[in-house]
């Protein structure tokens, strides 16, 4: 019997087209896997916050009917997918990992979700995340953490740990993530999967519950680079509902991934970012990174070192712009129209509680500590008298970071670095040290500030702990194809060395059912 | 009550003897675009509460705004009509504060990059022209509407609960802000009124808004401060909100001037605050304190791209502007043959457009002026409505005059037709029929009535026979009384003289 859940999305698409399997069978196989390994807040992977078995099977049946009727189909029609719980799904709860949205069922689909449904991919459910995507470990989910399939005492990265863990543990062949400072790429790195943050505006943000509007970008979470390219082509493209969406076509991503998979990078100029290495970078991570660079050289790439001096200010810049935007975005959670409503004890208020009393009580009970921390930071950064020194200054540094990228891309086609400074740390290890947690996104944040694309592909296991290391490829805006080409080349070269994908080396996930 | 609240108001003449007032007007114009500022929801006034809403204007998580191009066009046309510069590049900004009728708890507005800036409008008061300088006109979205239920005042304090209607949330607004208007002295209240009136006429002429103050589609906030006469400084201001008629604009300025003077007379300082205007009692009361501590934490809206109107587009829009109001008034005055005084009264009553439309509907200029300025202005004043909100249309006024011109009714009967129009009894024709107002042209009935009058007043009849024709008035009165006014007085006179001379 074929173990369908281990197949890539591209393989599943072929099998569906060849009539070897039905979408209902595939969907059921993944639902069975979820039931076996996902567990809940106390045990298991806990990648999902909501599983929609009924809805997914109905969508799968509809897909099989379309196929039987001979209708023209999207290549991924019938291949199941998981969606991060930060994207609105009509009729399916959307919590953003927060208590303040507990029980909210959106009346509309995000554009990404609408495109997934239109293409016929059954939606298995909504994946776990740090509350409102604030975090690098998924421990800030109000519904309990997700666990890393490689080692369930470790974090799966964040904020999109749910999507990465679902894909890494074969609960879903494809997932959607969102990346504001690394929330697609860093979970990809620490779970041995592929995560791509497209060019800002290449994928619509309509229906993506905003963390920081000028940084957020939805993108694919998969096990292979080709699958990521297939998925980005599906969800990407201009959306009139998102004014910031790019209104021009990207070069073919699937073609770029296929070209890269030949393992030939002759003439491709690659820059290694000087600033993203050194103290604080785990030796095992740097070792795998260096070996990967050597492989790319063997494949014909020209590799040079490139300095991006302002990148050292990226983290500080990010932690001013992000809290500023999110302090405003999260103001709408006031208990007036949807979500949690906490009515304070009337007696304390000398009669009826006012709207303001309800707002305060709801926000106090509904938001977690990290969210409150960032609301306070952002409110401060935008205050009159401080605006110029903080938010205004941060915007200027942001421009300088973009200039560093532009200058670097004059010399090279892509920039590379390790995706994260360390492998997956232990659950609880950095929970009480926000700054240590923030440092995890050091290498991923510059691309969000500049609006440029970046992909993380598995680069092997660190010697110290045997845990996955991620290799990041950054490209100029709208040149997402370069991320796919170089990423696919590295993937092919490493697979040849290992005799298969990195995930094949992962320990089997314990079935807890 | 504080001593400021109980301080006796200073008479207006005394205020202007000691102080120079400075005015500032912020006028919000609700545009009449078919859809809202940032989403596709309809904007129709008076729909069922919360029936014209969507994820975006309800501020649902994940929703995003998209700018309404028509609203940008209207903003530019307003700016051009106010002689403003049009920004080559500008952005929206978030104005952050919490209020239940504001779905996102920030208002998408413009901050330091308004689309229109540095303009002016020349305002005429009693034949004198004041140049009102426009600081800016910017685009923003309206909030929802709160309804406070229970309690005596309909205000939030004392209410049992509140309802919110989000139909209005996201309706496009243009906020037009003047620079401080100084030097108006005793005419400050009239300048304020004339500015708003003329701005309203301009908005009507541009066709960008329903421009109905009573429905809130034009709302004025009045800033006022006093400074010692001749000092050349600006005093501390108050901002009076909710001033929703032309008459109230004038009254609110007058009231605040007297109130400020009273407080300054005590040797106290004016508290910078928002005040509420009460149409019924004609006073303002303290709202929230508007201190410097209020911080809206403005920052550029990251969900929208900058608005960058091309110069070609701006010039195209300039070509669509209606005639300049000053030039238009001069042209109309010449066409209609109005005296300066007649024209000034017409403009001052806010009836220029109404008179123009009545003439267009067929009435003579003098007849149109007469009905609007004497009859209908008086009724507007009695009922507290704006003259254009009475419910009588220019077409109806023209129809009434047509009935007079045809001799079917006279001016006195016409007033009864207006009663019927205000009571909603139908068209002028229907009211004349239903109320039986038509002048009796039946010669037999009229002749009988004249005979009766002569018989009842033999002394008067003798005087007329003796050549005292002026005495006919008494008989005409008797005939008209018998005919319940529905007779042509001229014809009655003819008949009396025929019979007696």
Can you tell me about this structure?
The complex is a heterodimer of chains A (513) and B (501). In chain A, helix 2 (23-37) packs antiparallel against helix 3, helix 7 packs antiparallel against helix 8 (253-260) and helix 7 packs antiparallel against helix 16 (480-498). With 513 residues, chain A is of the alpha/beta class. Chain A has an eleven-stranded mixed β-sheet, with helices on both faces. The model of chain A has no long low-confidence stretch (mean pLDDT 96). Chain A contains 16 helices and eleven strands. In chain B, helix 14 (443-456) crosses helix 16 (472-482). Chain B contains 17 helices and 14 strands. Chain B has helices at 3-6, 12-18, 69-81, 188-206, 246-265, 311-318, 325-336, 340-348, 352-360, 365-383, 394-405, 411-422, 428-435, 443-456, 458-465, 472-482, 489-500; strands at residues 19-30, 85-86, 93-96, 106-109, 116-125, 128-141, 145-149, 161-165, 172-178, 218-228, 238-243, 273-278, 283-289, 299-300. In chain B, 39% of the residues lie in helices and 19% in strands. Chain B is an alpha+beta fold and 501 residues long. In chain B, strands 2-5-6-9-1-10-11-12-13 form a nine-stranded mixed β-sheet. The chains are: A alpha/beta (513), B alpha+beta (501). Chain A binds chain B through residues 87-88, 94, 96, 101, 104, 106-108, 110, 205-210, 212-214, 240-244, 324-325, 327-328, 331-334, 336-338, 352, 355-356, 359, 379, 382-384, 387, 391, and chain B through 55, 58-67, 94, 96, 98, 100, 103-106, 160-162, 164, 295, 297-299, 302-305.
